[in-house]
Amino acid sequence: MRKPFLILTILAYCFLLLNCTKDEPIVLSQPEALIASTDFALKIDLSWSPVPNAEGYNIYRADYSFTLEETEFILIDEVEGQENYTDITVNSSSQYYYKIEAFTSNVVSELSTEAIGQTRAVTAEEAFDILAEFTGGTVYNANSADEVPNAIIDIINDNAPANTDLVFLIDNTSSMSDDIFEVKNSINNIIDQLPSGVRLGMATYNDANTTIDWYFSLDLNSDYNQAITFLDGIGVFGGGDAPESVYDGIYLTLNQMSWNSTSERIIIVIGDAPPLEGSRTVYTLKNVVDEANRLHIDVNLYPILIEDF
Predict the structure, then answer these.
(1) What is the DSSP letter of 50?
(2) Nearest-CA neighbor of 215 among 174, 250, 241, 243?
(3) DSSP H helix total and E strand total for the chain
C-alpha cells in the first residue's frame, strides 16, 4: 500500500523541481580570447571564443589613445551565429580598441576585455583586393600598360553574359597615360568581344581635392560609337601615383548609371593608385560596398591593378 504513495511523492517532487528551474534566467559568461588583426590596411578582423547560450554579439570600438580610461566605446555592429567579424570602417595606418558582449533576446553579458587592432599603410593592391572581395568581383593584374586590354577582355570573357550592363571606370591621372593609350588603341577589339545585348558606359575619376573637373561619365547605352568617342576624349592630368578619389568615383558611378540589366552588372575599375581616405573623401569603403550590394543585382567590381608605375 505504501508504493503508490511513494510514486506520487516522487512525481510531485519532480513537478516542483521542474517548475522551480524552468524560469531561472540564462546567465551569459563574459566573452573571452578576443583577437584583433594587425596585418591589413583597410580592414580589421576580429575573432573570439564562443559563449554558451549566446544568440549573437555586439561589437564596440573606440579610437586608440594612450589613456584607456578616457576612451569612449561605441556600438558599431552586431553579428549572430558566428564568432568573427570584419570591420571595414577603419582608416589605414590607425589603431583601434575593440570590446564585445554576448546577448540573447533579453540577456546581455559583461563586456570583454579590450583588444587592440591596427591597420598598415594602404596600397593600391590591397585596396583593389578589398573592393573586389566585398562586392563579388575579382582583381585582374596588368604588369604593364600593354597588358591592360587583355585584362579587360579576360574580365568580359570570364564574367559578362549576354545583356550585361558594363562600365569602364578609369583613373585619368598622369601616371595612367600609357595605359589609357593602350585601351584607346584596342577599343575596337574589346568591343568585338562583347556578348550580344551588352550596354556600355564610361567614366573617369581623378582627385576631387585638386580639381573641379575630377569626374566625367557617359551613361550606359547600346551605341558603342558614343563610348569610343568618350574614350578618345579622355586626357590625363595631375595625380601621379598618389591616392585618388577611388571611392567617390565608384559611388558616383553606382548612382549615375541607368542600371537595368537582369543578367549582370559590372564595373571595371582601371587604376594604379590607392583610394583617398578620411576627410579627403566623401564616401568610404563601406559606403561603396553597401551601395553596390544594395542594388537589385550586385554590381560586381573587377579592378585592374596596373603595376608598372
Answers:
(1) P
(2) 250
(3) 7, 14
User: Distance (Å, rounded) from C-alpha 291 to C-alpha 295?
Assistant: 7
**Residue 186 main-chain phi, psi, to 5 deg:** -110, 5
Helix (H, G, I), strand (E, B) or coil at 113: coil
Instruction: Express each pLDDT in 77-134 by its tens digit.
Output: 999 999 999 999 999 999 999 999 999 988 999 999 999 999 999 988 999 999 999 9
Give the contacts of 104 (CB within 8 A, at least 6 positions apart). Answer: 26, 28, 53, 54, 55
Percentage with pLDDT > 70 across the chain? 88
Helix/strand/coil for 221: strand
In the sheet that holds 95-103, the strands lie side by side as 74-80, 56-63, 95-103, 115-118
Whole-angstrom distance, CA of residue 306 vs CA of residue 178: 11
| Other C-beta atoms lying within 10 Å of the C-beta of residue 70 | 8
| pTM attached to this predicted model | 0.84
Give the chain's end-to-end CA distance (angstroms, integer).
98
Residue with cell 577589339: 189
Query: Residue 107, CB half-sphere, CA atoms under 13 Å: how many?
Result: 14
Q: How many CB atoms lie within 10 A of CB 241?
A: 17
Pull the grid cell for residue 167: 562600365
Question: Do the beta carbons of residue 191 and residue 229 sit within 8 Å?
Answer: no
